[in-house]
Amino acid sequence: xxxxxxxxxxxxxxxxxxxxxxxxxxxxxxxxxxxxxxxxxxxxxxxxxxxxxxxxxxxxxxxxxxxxxxxxxxxxxxxxxxxxxxxxxxxxxxxxxxxxxxxxxxxxxxxxxxxxxxxxxxxxxxxxxxxxxxxxxxxxxxxxxxxxxxxxxxxxxxxxxxxxxxxxxxxxxxxxxxxxxxxxxxxxxxxxxxxxxxxxxxxxxxxxxxxxxxxxxxxxxxxxxxxxxxxxxxxxxxxxxxxxxxxxxxxxxxxxxxxxxxxxxxxxxxxx
Length: 272
Hints:
Blueprint: E1 8-14, H1 21-37, E2 42-44, H2 70-82, E3 85-87, E4 91-94, E5 101-108, E6 114-119, E7 125-128, E8 131-134, E9 147-151, E10 154-158, H3 167-171, E11 178-180, H4 187-205, E12 208-211, E13 228-231, E14 237-241, E15 246-252, H5 254-263, H6 266-269
Helix pairs in contact: 1-2
């Protein structure tokens, strides 16, 4: 597509999702509406925005076939209602294994048409003392390839949470203007690494990074780090919300991308 010349406003919605699907959809809808009224043209939801269950297997109870189901209907309707590009955090889609789902990001255009899908590749595993997580118990990894789509701000790369630790995924996206990272970083790992990793991905790819996160104490006892933010190609934080429901918002400025890439042409200097 043509190189964009105008600023394009984006927002990262932050939630503290519960075990109640309908409550989560209602609260996400309210935040989408507020961000849209603040001028956001592209809005990203966090990972697990539709459910933070008490058990890993709870995701299986709300899984959907691609193209149908209340979560996908909600996302399409929100995109149409507000005439926005909507990156639908993640939702559980069916696999050929009845005991596991794909943790999938679906993207909708302003007409409510689903235009892109990315299934999480890297599955989170962590163990320290009594704190333990293993996403592979209930999630099947997606196909090993980078996914992008075109929006008015240029090429947009898709990733999910734990993917953030694997820079080769982002290099494989090629020339992109925006990376989106819906996440549910734990408080432990987020407080140590979240901002550092996000700013690094922005700096090394000389693009904007929009990270929508879960941020607070959940019914299931899990505590997520939050700090949803927009970062510019120099690694500066444009906007951030620390904890609780809300959103971070700011502009994708093509002139800023060009300025950074011209002054420090690292992408042209790559040898591998």
